[in-house]
Design a protein that fits this description.
This protein is of the alpha/beta class. The chain has three domains: about 70 residues, Arc Repressor Mutant, subunit A (Orthogonal Bundle), CATH 1.10.10.10; about 120 residues, D-Maltodextrin-Binding Protein, domain 2, CATH 3.40.190; about 120 residues, Periplasmic binding protein-like II (D-Maltodextrin-Binding Protein, domain 2, 3-Layer(aba) Sandwich). Helix content is about 40%, strand content about 20%. The protein has 13 helices and 14 strands. Helix 8 links the parallel strand 8 and strand 9. Helix 1 crosses helix 2 and helix 6 packs across helix 11. The radius of gyration is 22 Å and the shape is globular. It starts with a helix and ends in a 7-residue tail after the last strand.
């Protein structure tokens, strides 16, 4: 298996055709075809199904794609570091983050970073929480900023923080006139929330159940920015985490506190025993400071207590039987809006 074989595979996956991949790689179509064939021989399974001029990935090809992409990203990471070492330049900074942080607080922190900390290459990748953690463990990212839970071995907690979720409504919504939105205000209204049942969505459902509140309709999405956009159009009330609410808003909404506490736990993580450059350390400190300045009810926790705090937050009232009692309600009247980005 050669790097050029993987490059050809990723190019075909990206463009959807041998012709497009050949154009992207500045190679002939026959060369790209040969590289794909060599890779399939090396792997022992077909990556694509051929039907005349049409080509589509197999199930195994789709499964292999993420690992191949991560491997090549690691190769690029190594090359960048080698160049920095040779030229005595600041080391590249590579960040993995959930969309909520990648679109708001992290860019603000980067803009404040002094010039002498800025390397030639900075890579900020937006991805689901689970993928962000895996990027750190695979060492294709210096650190990640992600929501919890994240209890994989091999992680070092650089910072552990908590905020409170808030409501976002269109400026013309009657609830925008209130200083605090009650959880009871969601009764008979459309709730806009996250789709992932194991993160923010679970705490929202528990708060509704505790208050005996039943929304008329649920619109579920897997990116908080989507929820804000939907709320701005007057389609309902979004319950979102504070990183999206106070980091960067892509649509005009009125953000109001809730009368119930729905905690949002997040952390800055790196690989255990991995040395971090001065630029990375400075950036991590600025991310934490900016978050503390922008998020009301911001709490800094002892990183050593992450497992205990996460367990307390995510155990749920029905953890004993391994089920969520709200599952019986979740599919009733729910509309899902899927996007390439997973929940923040």
């Amino acid at each position: 298996m050669e790097v050029r074989d993987l490059e050809a595979f990723l190019a075909v996956m990206s463009t959807g055709s041998i012709t497009g991949a050949a154009r992207m790689l500045d190679r002939s179509q026959s060369q790209v075809t040969r590289l794909i064939q060599d890779l399939e021989t090396s792997l022992g399974f077909a990556l694509f199904e051929r039907n005349g001029p049409k080509i589509s990935p197999t199930d195994k090809g789709i499964a292999f794609h993420e690992d191949a992409e991560r491997f090549l990203s690691g190769i690029g990471h190594l090359r960048n570091r080698a160049k920095a070492i040779a030229g005595k330049e600041p080391e590249p900074i590579e960040i993995a983050a959930t969309p909520a942080f990648a679109s708001g607080i992290i860019p603000i922190a980067l803009a404040e970073l002094p010039e002498h900390f800025l390397p030639h290459t900075i890579q900020l990748r937006s991805m689901p929480a689970e993928a962000a953690v895996q990027s750190v463990l695979a060492r294709t990212a210096d650190f990640c900023v992600t929501s919890l839970p994240a209890d994989q071995p091999g992680l070092e907690v650089l910072g552990l923080f908590e905020g409170r979720c808030v409501a976002a409504v269109a400026p013309h919504d009657p609830l925008a006139a209130k200083e605090v939105i009650s959880i009871a205000d969601l009764a008979g209204r459309t709730l806009i929330t996250m789709a992932n049942p194991f993160r923010l969505r679970r705490r929202v459902d528990e708060a509704l159940e505790a208050a005996n509140v039943q929304p008329n309709r649920v619109i579920a999405t897997n990116a908080a920015n989507n929820a804000v956009q939907i709320a701005s159009l007057g389609l309902g009330i979004a319950i979102i985490e504070p990183a999206t609410a106070y980091g960067s808003q892509s649509a005009p909404v009125a953000v109001r506190p809730l009368d119930v506490e729905i905690p949002f736990l997040w952390a800055i993580l790196s690989a255990a025993s991995r040395p971090l450059s001065a630029g990375v350390q400075e950036l991590v400190q600025r991310i934490a400071r900016i978050a503390s300045e922008r998020m009301p009810d911001f709490t800094v926790h002892d990183p050593r207590q992450m497992a205990r705090i996460a367990e307390k937050t995510f155990a749920g009232r029905n953890a004993g039987d391994g089920t969520l009692s709200d599952n019986r309600q979740r599919n009733k009247g729910e509309q899902k809006l899927d996007t390439p980005e997973n929940e923040n």
